[in-house]
Write a structure and sequence with these properties.
By secondary structure, the protein is α/β, with parallel strands linked by helices. Helices cover 52% and strands 13% of the residues. The chain has a 4-stranded parallel beta sheet.
Length: 187
């Protein structure tokens, strides 16, 4: 549009052909960038849809199994970076109407943490896993966000429904007869 106004004021002189070529190249670059960006956005969107469908399928399987047998649920965490995902699983299981007790088993220790952020996440997950009153300090809704039961009261001899949150396919410790894996793939 600006080029068109410029050319009108300059009476379409031949010297303006160079300007048109430069503008055309610029326009081609911008349009190419927009096209490639839209392909990336579509690819990301399709990946997110796939992940959401996978989560929904796993959620339904765990819910069905827990409702069918009315057994406790043991959620096993193998990576401290699954911090928010752990809370999401708890919330969605409750949203699905499960009244079963849900426990969190942490499969790593403070020694495995590499930095201060990981240490903070670990301490918070430890608070959640042990139903510590400390979680009231760092969360506004401890029971609705992090209402896990104290892992020390979990009876490993009873039947249960297990859910392991993983970042990759790996061997897990199966504490429950009915074990499910949720493999989270970050982008």
């Amino acid at each position: 549009f600006l080029l068109f106004i410029f050319l009108i004021h300059n009476d379409f002189r031949l010297s303006n052909i160079k300007l048109i070529n430069i503008f055309s190249v610029f326009l081609l670059i911008v349009l190419s960038f927009k096209i490639f960006t839209s392909f990336d956005n579509k690819k990301n969107l399709l990946f997110k849809i796939k992940q959401l469908n996978y989560f929904h399928t796993q959620l339904n399987e765990v819910t069905k199994s827990a409702k069918l047998h009315n057994e406790d649920i043991l959620l096993s965490s193998y990576n401290v970076w699954d911090y928010e995902l752990i809370s999401s699983w708890y919330k969605f299981l409750r949203f699905k109407g499960l009244k079963n007790d849900i426990y969190l088993k942490i499969e790593y220790s403070i020694k495995d943490m590499k930095n201060e952020v990981e240490e903070t996440f670990f301490k918070r997950l430890k608070d959640v896993s042990t139903s510590s009153d400390k979680k009231n300090i760092w969360t506004t809704n401890p029971e609705s966000d992090w209402g896990f039961k104290d892992i020390s009261k979990f009876n490993f001899d009873n039947r249960c429904v297990g859910l392991s949150i993983l970042r990759e396919e790996t061997k897990i410790i199966e504490y429950c007869e009915k074990s499910h894996k949720y493999i989270y793939t970050p982008f």
